[in-house]
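anyone seen this seq b4? input:
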Amino acid sequence: MKHQPVPSERISSRILLVRGQRILVDADLAALYGVRTKALNQAVKRNADRFPEDFMFQLTQVEKAEVVTNCDHLRRLRFSPVLPYAFTEHGAIMAANVLNSAAAVRTSVLVVRAFVRLRELIASHKVLASRLDTLEARCDRQFKVVFDAIRGLMMPPEPKPKRRIGFVSDD
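predicted toks r here
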């Protein structure tokens, strides 16, 4: 498998939130490092002592179903009998070390930068919310509508209800 440089946007879009942690699924990490998923998982199993629970964990069946449903690029995992592994930031770096290829080492730098960028983005939202609270406390009630509107823009959109598919009987 020939390895091409990976755009940082592609890495960021692959980082998911599972169990309150930002992770990369083994299939995505293997693709980023230019190896097959099976090769990545074999290297990890050979070096299991380097991967404690805070570096890597296996998804449950429910988590796998949720990830596959929410991420179109992972639809090939839907019918796989194997539960995928999830790598945290530290696990992704350790995986590059156990793979020991030049492409994995180069890409691991980009992976670290993507995780750091996400962390900075989350921190900037917290700082903005704090500043907004300070401003709101100093200003009078006439600006309450403005502050509420800004807070509404900071919240992630609620998922749209999915349309039910199937036949409806008259009974």
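The chain is about 55% helix and 10% strand. The two ends are 57 Å apart (CA to CA). kinda curious what u guys think
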